[in-house]
Amino acid sequence: QLFAYDLTSDGDVLKGRSLGPLVPGAKATDCRAMCVASDGTVWAGVAATFEGRGQFLHVVRWRPADSAPRDMGPVAIRNPDYVTTIKADGKTKPWHHGVYRLPDGKLLPRYTIMGICAARDGTVYLTTLYPFTLHAIQIPKVAGITTEYRHNSHADMFFTRLLATDTLDGRGRTPSLQLASIYTDQLPANDISREFGRKHAVPTHDSIKDALTLGTGQLAVDGVLLIAEHGKYPESNTGQFVFPKRRMFREVVETFRDAGRVVPVFHDKHLADNWADAKWIYDQARRLQIPMMAGSSLPVTWRYPPVDVRRGARLKQVVAVSYHRLDAYGFHALEMVQSLAERRAGGETGVRAVQCFTGDDVWEAEKRGVYDRRLLDEALSRLKQRPLPAGKKIEQLVREPVLFVVDYRDGLRANIFTLNHAVVEWAAAWRYADSGESESTLFWTQELRPFMHFTYQLMGIEQMMQTGKPVWPVERTLLTSGTLDALLVSKRDGGKRLDTPWLDVRYQTDWDWCQPPPPPPGRPISKQ
Asked: Are strands 2-5 and 16-20 parallel, antiparallel or unpaired?
């Protein structure tokens, strides 16, 4: 544990109190190094042993504004080629057995943190043994830029995780990012940005530029979280909320240009509500070489059963089911489908045309061969929360069905059904072109606080902020943003088929989904 003592007290007994365990959940801890930074932050190097997992070297932080120590996680070595540990004969060099590799290739130090020191620039230095190594640990400082920060908003899902651990209650894992500033475009009556800013000593700013420069006039953060998803904004004539994504990103870019350098940016959900703005944002990021990620949490969430499209396989058709609003949740469904489709042979080639069917036209489309009914039934069979009642067909349960049809340039077709009142989950099924086999899965999200699917999205963001390299391609979200816009134009225009030559977005990715650990129990969603 970490203890605090009052050195000004009188008498023979030094008064102290526990601030809490160094590494919650550890079976045992061994702390041999601790220091206090110039700003009062306590840093500790801890060997933490976990039941069934073994021992890892962790860095722990406590700031005067914190209610308890924060476990910043295990130490990994970013530049694994810094030393050669193996001799030509394949044996380990003498005194080089203190580093080892995980199955995913990460290099970790094995033996004890002997010393730790915090520099004024925020870098924490520590030493480990065999070989004797000096590590520079950097906790990236990120600016939180959002439309509004209220309870259960997307800003809450990201910013509060940085302030109150990934379980949103101070009891979970502390992400390896530091929220350095907050900017909110709107301040609703239930805003929590000011309260949280005061509680956690995070300054709030009146402009995006000040949030990125921390009022210094110079770029003073290592990354940007741009969360423009909630607030009172107008709707477009296609039924999308017009969040100020282009304007907010432009102000970020202007600050970068003034500074003469860039830092990574995470852009929550779709890039914009229309293709022109989405492409402008993408082009600006490419032109300035801004490391950028975007999109939905669905690609990283749990799947039941835990299956994925076989990499390099030829796909014939994907069918997915969704629910809720066509803009917000329709986007999630498109990202779900795209995370499957991008694995097919040849990678992504772009979208040739789209069409939106509504009402009875959705069921009539089956008779014309628009979609594979067996795949629809297979996707529906994966539903857990509200499975179809025995003896009922989906046509009997949905009053206003909507079908998104997406035709890719290489011949793949995706069909996405929004089935409100009958479906409250996401699921997908797909058929391989060569064998005719099909597979299907439920994309499960924790629809109770702490909404742990956001944690696994944030882990990818952490990695980009640490390395400067996106974990999954922003091109995925460029394509889904443009496809959603075109589909809603088709809907607005009476279901007209729309050719989309501008959606010739081509990319390949080596990103692989993996099943997250089981989530902690959900808590009822309070209405703070």
From this structure: antiparallel
- CA nearest neighbour of 417 among 473, 483, 371: 371
Look at strands 111-118 and 124-129 and give their pairing. Answer: antiparallel
d(CA 497, CA 487): 9
Phi, psi of 475 (to 5 degrees): -60, -30
Q: Which of 462, 354, 360 is nearest to 415 (CA)?
A: 354
Q: Which residues contact 382 (CB under 8 A, 6 or more apart)?
A: 304, 427, 429, 440, 441, 442
Contact 309, 428 (CB under 8 A): no
Provide the H-helix boundaries in 288-359: 328-341
Name the helix (H) or strand (E) containing 403: strand 402-408
DSSP 8-state code for residue 79? -
Confidence (pLDDT) at 525: 57
Report, as ranges of residue numbers, the positions in the chain whose pLDDT lies below 70. Answer: 524-528
Name residue 59's beta-bridge partners: 45
Q: Find the helix or strand (DSSP H, E) in which 213 lies.
A: helix 208-213
Query: In the prediction, which pLDDT does 528 show?
Result: 43
Q: Give the pLDDT confidence score for residue 521 in this predicted structure.
A: 86
- Identify the pLDDT of residue 334: 98
What is the spatial distance between Cα 81 and Cα 55, in angstroms, rounded to a whole number? Answer: 23
How big, in percent rounded to 5, are the helix, strand and coil portions of the chain? 25, 30, 45
Distance of alpha carbon 487 from alpha carbon 508, whole angstroms:
24
Identify the burial level of 510 via C-beta atoms within 10 angstroms of its C-beta, where 0-12 means exposed, 13-18 middle and 19 or more buried: exposed
Strands 413-418 and 315-322: parallel
pLDDT computed for residue 22 by the predictor? 94
pLDDT for the residue 527: 47
Q: Please tell me the predicted confidence (pLDDT) of residue 172.
A: 85
Q: Tell me the pTM.
A: 0.90
- What is the Cα–Cα distance from 318 to 35, expressed in whole angstroms? 55
Chain-centroid distance of CA 111 in Å reads 32
| Cα gap 167→472, rounded to integer Å | 24
* Omega prior to 24 cis, within 30 of 0: no
CA–CA separation, 109 and 77 (whole Å): 8
CA distances from 30 to 2, 27, 74, 75 (A): 12, 11, 14, 15
